Amino acid sequence: MKKRIESEVLPPKPLPDMMLRGFAIHSSFLDTGAQEALVEDLRAVIRTAPLFSPQTAQGKTMSVRMTSAGRYGWFSDRAGYRYIPTHPGGSDWPAIPERVLAIWRALVSRERMPDCCLVNFYAEGARMGLHQDRDEADFTWPVLSISLGDEGLFRVGATTRGGATASVWLRSGDVVVMGGDARLAYHGIDRIRAGSSTLLPKGGRINLTLRVVD
Ligand SMILES: O=C(O)CCC(=O)C(=O)O
């Protein structure tokens, strides 16, 4: 009964503008005002939980700087990739900003909120190699990705390593739902196009990924 009442009063989930190998891409989902408001929210997150440069298990420093908001934050060092309950500096992760949760509600779920909002910052030259998001307990929940600032060349492959890939430039305000049969698809950012956006005064790209962890 509760479900019926909700579907009668709540708007339906918006349809994506394109599908890329099973990932649903909502182009320009956020207008400029919404993007600017998110950047303000993220400044507060980063003040509480400063960006850091994770190391891979092989001891390489990642070119992307990161922090998180939520019950868990994503972390990597010589011991491997994992979620941790506090910032590496020792403080609690800040709460996920309400405006970020509203995007999750609009595109994923109104009942279950994400546990982690990973904040990736790409300065010019930063990239993220092809990888799967598989540190979460339940792959029926999608990963939601929000792009802000400079454009990023997003590459998507199959759910197994190797084979064909397809790419698209993600622009500021684009939102991607990575779920369904493509939840474990390999994906990454080949490069950013420095200077392609004026959203961040010093340039660069921010990507948020929202995940249900456990
Ligand atoms: O920056 C992006 O668009 C992708 C980020 C990503 O793949 C990740 O955080 O796992």
In DSSP terms (H or I, runs of 4 or more residues), the helix count works out at 3
Main sheet record: 7 strands, antiparallel
Estimate nothing, just give the exact number of structural domains: 1
Task: Give the ordered list of helices and strands.
Answer: HEEHEEEHEEEEEEEE
Give a written overview of the molecule.
With 214 residues, the chain is an alpha+beta fold. The chain has one domain (17-208): Alpha-ketoglutarate-dependent dioxygenase AlkB-like (Jelly Rolls). The chain is 16% helix and 33% strand. It has three helices and 13 strands; from the N terminus they run αββαβββαββββββββ. The protein has helices at residues 2-9, 32-48, 98-107, and strands at 18-20, 23-26, 65-70, 73-77, 80-84, 116-122, 128-131, 143-149, 151-156, 166-170, 175-178, 187-193, 205-211. A seven-stranded antiparallel sheet has the order 1-2-11-8-13-6-3, with helices on one face. It has a four-stranded antiparallel sheet with strand order 7-12-9-10, with no helix packed on it. The protein has a two-stranded antiparallel sheet with strand order 4-5. Strand 1 (18-20) and strand 2 (23-26) form a beta hairpin. The two termini are 28 Å apart. The model has no long low-confidence stretch (mean pLDDT 96). It binds 2-oxoglutaric acid. 2-oxoglutaric acid binds at residues 118, 120, 128, 133, 145, 147, 152, 154, 170, 187, 189, 207, 209.
